[in-house]
């Protein structure tokens, strides 16, 4: 009987410990709204008004004016560089970036440079270490 009560006490203590560990250390923070100022590093021969910033998960966009665009997104979302929605026949999808208060988005119009970044990303993802 004494072993059973010790076992029950140990299980209760472990459960309480796991609960407090989750609540105090491991529990993720809820997403926050972030006001994003995105700067355009234009590597193309197009005017900045050709591009916009898009919140990937919602589709909300903001166009560039004076080299920057401002948009609000949640901290758990991602943004990317896209073509201005005014230009419906042209499509540009940039790399996904995590939301941060200040972000620089680069436009790649040189195919070899863009492909080199794709291959670099694939090498980093699939390389064995």
Give a written overview of the molecule.
- By secondary structure, this protein is of the alpha+beta class.
- It has two domains: 1-29; 33-126, Sandwich (Immunoglobulin-like), CATH 2.60.40.
- The chain is built from two helices and seven strands.
- A four-stranded antiparallel β-sheet has the order 3-2-5-6, with no helix packed on it. It has a three-stranded mixed β-sheet with strand order 4-1-7.
- Strand 2 and strand 3 (61-63) form a beta hairpin.
- The radius of gyration is 23 Å and the shape is elongated.
- The protein starts with a helix and ends with a helix.
- The mean pLDDT is 83.
Radius of gyration over alpha carbons?
A: 23 Å
Name the poorly predicted regions. Answer: none
Instruction: Give the class from helix and strand content and strand pairing.
Output: alpha+beta
Tally of DSSP helical segments: 2
Share of residues in strands = 25-35%
**Quaternary structure type:** single chain
The rounded distance between the terminal residues' Cα atoms is 52 Å
| Beta strand count | 7
């Amino acid at each position: 009987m004494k072993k059973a009560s010790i076992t029950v006490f140990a299980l209760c203590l472990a459960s309480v410990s796991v609960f407090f560990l989750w609540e105090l250390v491991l529990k993720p923070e809820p997403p926050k709204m972030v006001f994003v100022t995105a700067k355009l590093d234009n590597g193309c021969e197009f005017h900045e008004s050709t591009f916009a910033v898009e919140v990937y998960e919602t589709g909300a966009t903001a166009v560039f004016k004076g080299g920057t665009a401002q948009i609000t997104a949640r901290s758990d979302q991602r943004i990317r560089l896209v073509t201005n929605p005014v230009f419906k026949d042209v499509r540009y999808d940039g790399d996904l970036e995590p939301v941060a208060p200040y972000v620089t988005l680069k436009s790649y119009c040189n195919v070899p440079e863009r492909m080199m970044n794709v291959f670099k990303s694939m090498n980093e993802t699939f390389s064995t270490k």
